[in-house]
Specification:
Layout: E1 4-9, E2 12-13, H1 20-38, E3 42-50, H2 54-63, H3 67-84, E4 91-94, H4 98-113, E5 117-127, E6 132-134, E7 153-162, H5 164-177, E8 182-183, H6 185-196, E9 203-204, E10 206-207, E11 214-215, E12 223-224, H7 226-231, H8 233-236, H9 247-252, E13 257-261, H10 265-279, E14 287-290, E15 293-295, H11 310-317, H12 319-329, E16 336-338, H13 340-370, H14 383-393, H15 395-404, H16 408-429, H17 431-434, H18 441-461, H19 467-476, H20 511-518
Parallel strand pairs: 1-3, 1-13, 2-3, 3-4, 8-14, 13-14, 15-16
Antiparallel strand pairs: 5-6, 5-7, 7-9, 10-12, 11-12
Helix pairs in contact: 2-3, 5-10, 6-10, 11-12, 12-16, 13-16, 13-18, 13-20, 14-16, 14-18, 15-16, 16-18, 18-19
Length: about 525
């Protein structure tokens, strides 16, 4: 029986179509899920949409439609983007799904009946875009929202509150005893120093100033606020209910990793664990707060016009090229910068020149020198042969270490470096020179075998990052050994295999033309 692995994205808010910066998270999580499946794990990968709240109600009013009509439209766009990026999610949850709303009502009622939620009055400063309340001391030096930097306004409202303070000591102990609960380390320190050390205030968990939300069934003037509604998706998607949970919950919970943006870390490492503690449920094993993808040096914003959309880029460059850029450019703990120029440069350099050129010319040379039939290598290996073999054999352990610690860009670099080493091997061995000397026939056969076997390694290793490209490589070389266990030795290609016709994986772009197409509005 294979080991389970439950991984989630944050659910996307349905106020606007997501830009490429928002799409990074789903591709990142998909690569992690695909990698775990490749290792033999029984993976459950959850994503979806967060659809309630005042902001969505306002957007629907501006569009002249009902809130449900509006969120149906945006949720559809979000799912289409996930699909166009080749994301292999197992479930797409919407917080307007009936089963989710019913479970949220039961969760709220349970917490109220056991005294963890109480009724009171809220007086504070409210950020409408973030749908968050803040005290004066939590604002920026300019008196703005600490999350988005926008203006806040005074608000007074009857509300229900969750007793965060009751669970503070228990949460602090959990973080201390589980040092890998919050990663990276810098994010953990931020939560401890900025929120836990100053002391937790009880959290507003209902609203009366808008109606687009899950009604509190025992007090219909209130709707359940985002914290309990949205965060609960991670367990309601697995058929959780306070009345008794289903098979999926028993199988997959607790989550192995919540993959989220650094801006919502507080909700996932303070509010969500306390909700689970109050419910008597296990906490997720890990929360990974990833950095942002910026446009140049700025955060992407539709209002400033510096927005790129994933579906548009996929249409112009192809799915795998967009995936590779997102995964290979984002450092582990720092924001990354995206520009159209950088996308084109990476496409031409990494994908067309390094990877695509290696695969195409390797298959072409076997076609030219051995009629497309993969020759057997000689028994004696030279220095260059051994170096290429060692580079290939070191890849899977190194990629595994990088992926397990969420250093996904490092994993991409390891794989790309194998392709670079193989290109260097071509320059070192000069197969076109060997082909002119009949006495070097066995040596030429060894070189050809090493190049095609390296292509096989690349085809297997690229599956989590560029699944379509990986499949094309493996199909072109007619590989029969395509699982990770075959990467423990450099002999997976069978001599005598008839290779396919070499086809360009990535055609080099003309910079000016490609730039104009990418920037089309």
């Amino acid at each position: 029986m294979s080991k389970t692995y439950y991984i989630t994205t944050a659910i996307a808010y349905t106020s606007r179509k997501p830009h490429i910066g928002n799409s990074y998270e789903i591709v990142l999580t998909d690569a992690l899920a695909r990698f775990k499946r490749m290792l033999g794990y029984d993976v459950f990968f959850l994503t979806g949409t967060d659809e309630h709240g005042q902001k969505n109600e306002d957007c629907a009013h501006e569009a002249g439609v009902t809130p449900k009509e509006y969120v149906d439209l945006i949720a559809g766009q979000i799912r289409e983007i996930c699909d166009c990026l080749g994301c292999s999610y197992d479930k797409f949850i919407r917080t307007t799904d009936g089963y989710h709303e019913l479970a949220v009502q039961k969760i709220f009622k349970k917490l109220y009946e056991q005294g963890d939620i109480y009724k009171g009055k809220y007086e504070g400063l409210y950020c409408k875009p973030c749908e968050s309340f803040f005290t004066e001391s939590q604002l920026t030096d300019e008196g703005k929202c600490p999350d988005c930097g926008r203006a806040v306004s005074p608000a007074t409202e009857e509300a229900y509150f969750l007793r965060l303070s009751k669970y503070q000591e228990r949460l602090e102990k959990h973080i201390e005893e589980n040092p890998e609960f919050i990663v990276p380390e810098s994010r953990k320190r931020e939560m401890i120093n900025n929120f836990l050390k100053p002391g937790l205030q009880d959290l507003c968990v209902s609203r009366t100033s808008f109606s687009w939300g899950v009604p509190v069934d025992f007090d219909p003037a209130h709707v359940v606020y985002v914290w309990i509604d949205a965060l609960s998706n991670y367990i309601t998607a697995l058929d959780y209910s306070p009345d008794g949970s289903g098979e999926l919950y028993r199988k997959y919970w607790p989550a192995d990793c919540h993959v989220i943006g650094k801006d919502i870390l507080r909700f996932h490492t303070i509010y969500w664990p306390i909700i689970l503690m109050a419910l008597g449920e296990p906490l997720p094993k890990q929360v990974f707060g990833h950095p942002w993808l910026l446009f140049g040096a700025e955060k992407m914003s539709k209002s400033t016009g510096n927005v790129l959309y994933a579906d548009h880029l996929v249409q112009k460059l192809g799915r795998d090229a967009v995936r590779w850029f997102l995964l290979s450019e984002m450092p582990y703990g720092q924001d990354a910068s995206v520009t159209p120029e950088r996308i084109i440069e990476g496409y031409n350099t990494d994908l067309a020149n390094v990877l695509g050129n290696l695969v195409q010319r390797s298959i072409s040379m076997v076609g030219k020198y051995f009629d497309g039939i993969l020759p057997a290598p000689e028994n004696v290996r030279g220095e260059f042969d051994r170096e290429l073999e060692q580079t290939a054999l070191a890849c899977l352990p190194a990629v595994t270490d990088a992926m397990n610690s969420y250093h996904v860009a490092n994993a991409c670099e390891i794989v790309l470096n194998l392709a670079k080493r193989a290109n260097k091997y071509v320059d070192e061995t000069l197969p076109w020179v060997l082909a002119k000397d009949d006495t070097q026939r066995e040596r030429l056969a060894t070189v050809m075998y090493h190049l095609i076997e390296t292509c096989r390694f690349l085809g297997v290793l690229l599956q989590p990052f560029m699944p379509d490209t990986a499949a094309k490589i493996l199909a072109q070389i007619n590989a029969s050994a395509t699982d990770v266990s075959s990467l423990s030795s450099f002999d997976g290609m069978m001599a005598g295999t008839k290779l396919g016709t070499p086809e360009a994986l990535f055609v080099r772009l003309k910079v000016d033309e490609a730039l104009a197409e990418i920037m089309e509005k």
